[in-house]
From TrEMBL:
InterPro entries: At4g02000-like (IPR040256), DUF4283 (IPR025558). Residues 33-111 form the DUF4283 domain. This is Uncharacterized protein LOC109130892. It comes from the Eukaryota.
Amino acid sequence: MADELWDELQNLAMRREDPELFVPHEAYAATVARNRLSLIARPLNPRAQNLFTVISSLPRIWGLAARVHGRVLDDTFVQFLFQSEVDLISVQRREPWIFNNWFVAFQRWEDLPDFDFLTTIDIWVQMRGIPLPYVCEETVTQIAEALGEVVELAFHDATTTQ
């Protein structure tokens, strides 16, 4: 019995028997063109941030209600389609966005997203209250690295007042 089961497992085909699907290049190119001016968003607390409310509220907050169309992609992501590059960039420059007291992670649409797609948010942090003898770039770097990955450090010993 065990030998028969072992033989069946050895010869088991682990793929579906469905035919392969071929997507023509024209369809792929149309998808890339249509989504080029869009942001994918992921509300970080789905229990407190209804996806449909996010879609209706954020374009109004941005002042772009007539020029941005949103849609739910699945239970996790929403997509905002913009009419112009200027509007899209203006929304990106004012990130991070908060809806219903929780962050919403945004990233520009990519046809082949990375493994860490929409898993981080860049936040600008200003530090205050460091004791004066310890105000130096090394101290600021140490504190910033303890908080997370440091993308840019805007601190200069010669020009700081604190």
